Amino acid sequence: MRSKVLGLNQTESILASCLYGLLAQNPIQYAGKSYYMADYKNVSVYCPILPNKVDTLRRLYKNLEKVGLIQLIKLDNHVFFTPSQMLRDWGKVYNSDVAEKNPQTGIKSVEAEKNTMKAEKNPVEAEKNPLYINNINNNINNYNNNN
User: Fold this and answer.
1) Neighbours of 86 (CB within 10 A)
2) How far apart are CA 138 and CA 144, in angstroms?
3) What ranges make up the beta strands (E) of 51-143?
4) Which of 101, 119, 130, 138 sits between 20 and 30 A of 81, alpha carbons compared?
5) The model scores a pTM over 0.70
6) Residue 129 has what pLDDT?
C-alpha cells in the first residue's frame, strides 16, 4: 500500500526494500548525516532481482529520490544515500487511511496493527495474548532444535 501511495512501481518498491536492508550496514558520516554505500553494481549483486544495468538503476534511484525516500550523493566514484524517515519506517505496518491524507504519517507500529486486527475479529479476546502465537513460537523452536 505504501508503494501505491508513493506511486512506485514494483521494481522501485523492490529497490526501496533493498535499500532498507542496507541500513543494517555501517554508515559514513558526511555533512552531519549518515550515508550508506549503494553502488549500482553492488546493489544488483545484493538483490539479484533488480536490473543489473547501471543506467536503469540510476533512473530508479532518481525516482526514489524524487518521491523523497532517499537523498543521493556521489563521493570518490561511489554512490551513497541517506534515507528519509519514510524509508527508515519501511519495515513497519503502513496505515493507508492516514496515508491518503499524508503519506509521511501513515506509519503504525506492528503491535498497534495486530491489536486493531484482533479487536476487529473478537473484541473480548483483543486484550489477551492469542494462543496461536505461542503455537507458532513452539513450532519455530521445534524446527530449530531438530535442525
Assistant:
1) 20
2) 10
3) 70-75, 78-83
4) 101
5) no
6) 44
